[in-house]
Design brief:
about 220 residues, alpha/beta, Rossmann fold, 7 strands, about 15% strand, disordered C terminus, binds S-adenosylmethionine
């Protein structure tokens, strides 16, 4: 990532997307049908092998990019096993070589495929982070935001404390609405990270942008 300053998110949406409740209800009531890609299944098997018979609590760092946040979490929670996931081999490779953490596993996978595999496996997470997901600010891209995607119904079943950070407050306001529909209360707070947890956070912060955090202390549909 370059060191240049970044512009705040712009969108023709002045507030939460009006079709969001209708879309999420459809997703919550749908069956998951899409089979996972081979490479994600293989990566998932590799991850299960790495966990082995260890019983440490788990942390999911979804969309971890180059993995800086995963390493920070591995340092902050030495008794936990941290799993950082990103679909970009390029980003993960850029962070490779900085590992050296016995409690950290970086995994290349598409989370649209991985979340359902995790739910089926019955693994429960103690903490789950999605830090600075792509905002997809065009209204027509609502279905690409995590809370507007079919996989939302799996994503909320991981359990534990759930946190999403963004520089676009509307993204979190939408997440809050969708979590409420799924039966869970979440709060949104402005944050002043010091030090920043991720490279995107550092860049947005250095650009003077407001940063926000959605937190849900106990995950919604935890293990129905
Ligand atoms: C804006 S970057 C944020 C990276 C990092 N969390 C940070 O704050 O520096 C969003 C990341 O989400 C990843 N991503 C997007 N869609 C994904 C998917 N379906 N599965 C896994 N990772 C995905 C991208 O590859 C990218 O690294």
């Amino acid at each position: 990532m370059s060191n240049s300053l970044s512009r705040a998110v712009t969108s023709s949406q002045a507030g939460p997307h009006p079709r969001l409740p209708e879309i999420v209800l459809r997703h919550l009531n749908a069956e998951h049908l899409k089979p996972a890609a081979r490479h994600t299944k293989d990566a998932f098997a590799h991850m299960l092998h790495w966990i082995g018979d260890r019983k440490n609590p788990l942390i999911m760092d979804a969309c971890c990019g180059v993995g800086d946040s995963s390493r920070n979490l591995a340092d902050a929670f030495p008794d936990h096993l941290v799993i950082g996931v990103d679909k970009s081999a390029h980003r993960l490779e850029r962070g490779a070589g900085h590992n050296g953490h016995e409690n950290l596993f970086l995994l290349r996978a598409d989370l649209n495929d991985l979340y359902p595999l995790l739910v089926t496996s019955g693994l429960i997470f103690d903490r789950h982070y999605i830090l600075y997901p792509n905002p997809w600010p065009k209204p027509g891209h609502l279905g690409r935001r995590w809370h507007g995607a079919p996989v939302f119904r799996d994503l909320i079943k991981l359990g534990g404390r759930f946190e999403v950070r963004s520089n676009w407050r509307i993204y979190l306001a939408e997440f809050q609405i969708v979590l409420d529909i799924a039966g869970t209360e979440a709060s949104i707070n402005r944050i002043f990270p010091d030090p920043p947890l991720t490279p995107f956070e550092a860049k947005y912060h250095a650009s003077g942008q407001d940063l926000w955090q959605l937190v849900c202390e106990s995950h919604p549909a935890s293990r129905k």
